[in-house]
From TrEMBL:
The keyword S-adenosyl-L-methionine does not apply. InterPro entries: C57A10.07/YOR238W. Keywords: Membrane, Transmembrane, Transmembrane helix. It comes from the Eukaryota. The chain crosses the membrane at residues 58-78. Residues 1-20 are annotated as: Disordered. One of its GO terms (cellular component) is cytoplasm. This is DUF218 domain-containing protein.
Length: 337
């Protein structure tokens, strides 16, 4: 073929560049051209939005506010569920998933001695003026022993010593840890193997109502459930306060609540009964201890400003924890199902 021959229409090497659109020289594929954006449409939409805003500014503000609140609520719910799952995990991951009953020993003092061999001496404990009676230390030991004995008779019971760091001059030591350490030093009164592994502490309570409420929440943290039965160990003259006032405030069934009381020292009993009557009267007016003198007492019993972790570990009781009123809480409770 002559080199001067051109590439005409009949030539096998003839080439026609497609009109319109894009053409890929390497692949030989013709592609449709992109449609240009319609600036008039976008301007029209923006203009309509602007006109609506100018005509109804309040409505737009309410719509944006509602949207923002919805987002915050969703984030709050997600955070609560995430924190609960992170702290507690699944039911099988709880330390004591098989325990069903709660035995709570309410703390009344803090052990300050460096030696555990002086537990029955009053100078080994931090005592308030009204507690300074001969034999007072022995009453604390009796509470500890009673709690251990009750737990030993019930293999499904979780034993909790309850009480926070309530006394500044006693240092950052809790009532609960004091009781646990003494039980440990006493070899759990012969029940080491059966009780020690399921005896723990609740270290934030500042009064008797919080002893009960916080221990119920702590039980939920450790077992993944709420207690089937509750037994409280304290002084016998406090039975009405726990079994009637506090139990009613929690809405816990009477038939599943038990109280084991030990006596005060003979020299302190008369003053103790008088003081107890005054405290009961306060809780009758303020069942949740969130107002007046009971609230002030709680503040004084938190000298180190400890942050209370509850109700993170018992999310079902969040409404109860936030409730403050002169009548019992009427919302939903797990043990009323």
């Amino acid at each position: 073929m002559s080199s001067s021959q051109g590439f005409g229409p009949g030539s096998p090497k003839s080439f026609r560049y497609p009109r319109g659109g894009d053409f890929d020289l390497e692949s030989g594929i013709s592609r449709k051209g992109r449609k240009p954006k319609n600036p008039h449409l976008e301007a029209s939409v923006l203009m309509r939005i602007r006109n609506f805003y100018e005509a109804h500014p309040v409505a737009v503000a309410l719509i944006l506010l509602s949207f923002g609140l919805s987002v915050l609520i969703l984030l709050s719910v997600y955070e609560t569920r995430f924190r609960t799952m992170t702290r507690s995990g699944e039911v099988g991951e709880y330390p004591f998933p098989n325990l069903q009953n709660l035995v709570m020993v309410a703390g009344h003092s803090i052990y300050t001695s460096a030696s555990c061999g002086k537990t029955d001496r009053e100078d080994s404990w931090f005592l308030e003026p009204y507690q300074k009676h001969h034999g007072q230390a022995a009453t604390f030991l009796e509470h500890i022993r009673e709690g251990v004995d009750i737990a030993a008779r019930d293999e499904r019971a979780l034993l909790l010593f309850s009480g926070g760091e309530t006394r500044k001059d006693a240092g950052p030591r809790s009532e609960a840890q004091s009781y646990w350490a003494i039980a440990e030093s006493k070899g759990w009164f012969g029940n080491d193997e059966s009780v020690r592994s399921r005896a723990l502490t609740e270290e934030h309570a500042r009064d008797s109502f919080e002893n009960l409420l916080f221990s119920v929440c702590r039980f939920r943290e450790l077992t993944g459930r709420y207690p089937q039965n509750i037994t409280v160990v304290s002084y016998d003259f406090k039975e009405e306060r726990f079994a009637q006032l506090h139990r009613t405030a929690l809405g816990f069934p009477e038939g599943r609540f038990f109280f084991s009381g030990t006596p005060a020292t003979p020299s302190a009993r008369e003053a103790a009964l008088k003081g107890e009557a005054a405290v009961r009267a306060q809780f009758l007016e303020d069942p949740y201890g969130c107002l007046g003198s009971l609230h002030v007492k709680r503040l004084k019993r938190d000298p180190f400003h400890r942050t209370i972790p509850y109700p993170d570990g018992c999310p079902e009781l969040r409404s109860l924890f936030s409730y403050c009123g002169p009548v019992p809480f009427s919302g939903h409770l797990p043990w009323t199902e």
